[in-house]
Amino acid sequence: MSKREVSVDIETRRAVEAIVLAATEPVHPTVMAQLVELPVETIDELCSQLAAEYEAQGRGFQLARVAGGYRFQTHPDAYPYVERFVLDGQTARLSGPALETLAIVAYKQPVSRAQLSAIRGVNVDATLKTLVARGYVDEIGHDPSPGNPSMFATSRLFLERLGIDSLSDLPPLADFVPESSVVEALERGLLLPTGDAAEADAPESNLAAGTARDSADLDLTGE
Amino acid sequence: MSKREVSVDIETRRAVEAIVLAATEPVHPTVMAQLVELPVETIDELCSQLAAEYEAQGRGFQLARVAGGYRFQTHPDAYPYVERFVLDGQTARLSGPALETLAIVAYKQPVSRAQLSAIRGVNVDATLKTLVARGYVDEIGHDPSPGNPSMFATSRLFLERLGIDSLSDLPPLADFVPESSVVEALERGLLLPTGDAAEADAPESNLAAGTARDSADLDLTGE
Amino acid sequence: MPYEVSTPVFEGPFDLLLHLILKEEVDLWEISLSRIVDAFCAEVERMDHVDLDLTTEFLLIAATLVELKARRLLPGRDDVDLDEELMRFEERDLLLARLLDCKTFQDAARVMHEQLQAASRSIARTAGPEEPFRSLAPDPLQRVALDALVAAARRALAPKIVEEVQTAHIAPIRASVRDAIDTVLALLPEHGAVQFRELTYGVTEKLEIIVRFLAILELFKQGMIDLEQVENFGVLTVRPLAAGERVALDLASLEEWGDEPAGPRQSGPAQPARIEEQV
Hints:
The complex is a heterotrimer, with 2 copies of chain A and 1 copy of chain C. By secondary structure, chain A is mostly helical. Chain A is built from 11 helices and 5 strands, in the order αααββααβααββαααα. In chain A, strands 3-5-4 form a 3-stranded antiparallel sheet. A two-stranded antiparallel ribbon of chain A has the order 1-2. Mean pLDDT of chain A is about 80; it is low at about 195-223. By secondary structure, chain C is mainly alpha-helical. Chain C is about 50% helix and about 5% strand. Chain C contains 10 helices and 3 strands, in the order αααααααβααββα. Chain C has a 3-stranded antiparallel sheet with strand order 1-3-2. Mean pLDDT of chain C is about 70; it is low at about 1-10 and about 260-279. Chains in contact: A-B, A-C, B-C. The interface between A and C is large, with 78 and 74 residues.
């Protein structure tokens, strides 16, 4: 929503609404700026204003900024009624593995098949194939490194499907870095003996009780 | 414009606006009446009311009754802007799926709907309809095989638009290089018959399986 | 997807390891070696078909864990090589880093899924311009270069990879009816009936299921059990006959089956034939 009201004449408002309505894909604000001969910023502000009006008036449509442009789309609340107008295949769900692979591509792009497999710990060939076939991921070229691996990145369609304007609208990956309790749990789970005197001195200590932590463990768990 | 105000809840208003926005063709009021479970008269009154609101608010779009149904269309006052936008070709893009389907028809013709769907891996009904409506693809008759499927081929217009004289001017696909993943899979010995292998071994194999090319394709691609 | 296993799904070894450590909230060092091995083996066995890459990865991680744990259990050694020591920490840190990566993207994927779901509730208008604008628009095909069409054809016609694992090097499963009878007898309750499905619980090989079926046919023939199937393709119920109802198991007649499950005998007895009609 815009911070300040822009005052444009009714002709410009009409033009912007009409252009977006006539479009078949999101319209970049520069295109509209050229057509109505106004700065891009004004278009952006006008669009925010229009979007806010629709929302305030309880309209069944929204003016959304998606994949770099503006488009009309139905209001999510009306979904039960418009479901039947969804084109076939659009609603097909992605499997868990496909989603995880997609998430890695989204945050690590450009990324090679081998890098994806390394992170997932499984072969991603089939999953990647699905994502490419569905148009969420594109092969964008080859890396100059040895073997010239194909590199993959998310597509424009991915942004559209996610309903976001650009990749920078993705929540930062830092948000998902496991919290310290999880890290600690993992560290504890993978605890390594140091082979020092601690164990030799107390070979009988009760492992199961988790009390026989040596100094290395203390460092890891921060106790 | 309605003689009297109808009072419907915001959910119904939203639903009607959303349905008309999502539809690609005018929506008959009886369809909406069924979806929102209200009498057709109420829908008609609601639509008149919405149309009046848009007009009063100076919107760039109208809710118009066309061919027995309702659709959103651009406001006549915005005509010059929409005209320039459209003339710029901003609305004239073949979608990825449409282009792929057209390409398959070009190289595989004559081809049935089922064969196209099998190759694309998705239902092609809507896409094919668009291509036929645009005049790129013609229905050229029925195959004598069981079910007598309609067969499709590219049109003269298709050749004209692409700037070629005949189908034989289409670049051969013979220099087709399988992508690296296919090569890798071949090396691992994990691959089922590829297009190339299947061509050589079984020129008559079933197109619908999506893996083999028939002899007609060899003529096109065999150079 | 290489694996679409029924719940709970562990799509890879990291998945499983995360589950073991986080969901079960256990210290891997506090649970027995055999439990770790069992969990990994169970997951490998659960896989519908064999993916050598994935299986290898599972086994590698399981082996790493077992090795780390085994070291932990050994009494302290004074002769520890410093390099070896460092390597162990490196191994562990590597595993830890990969687990953290895995967890991070799992969570990111969950949020992305919610976002996709939410976004899919809004449908973009695609109707485009109405007439007369529609006819004003330049023909979209005019904007398509021949190259683009060829590229689209190649994309669309590219052979689709269907993963199929060569199994020539895998030893064939040998399942004998005799063994299956023993297994079935052990699984049968003292009283009451069980479904055939329960007698094949956890069995993934089709061949083994067939052999178990042959085993219950044989037991039926021997008068050890009663079979009931109410409708075609319906539930097949197996009920052991009480001691008074049955005769002694005639092991001698089993020789006919040999060790190879060669299918029902041609000279099959009356009872199995009746069952076949019901099946």
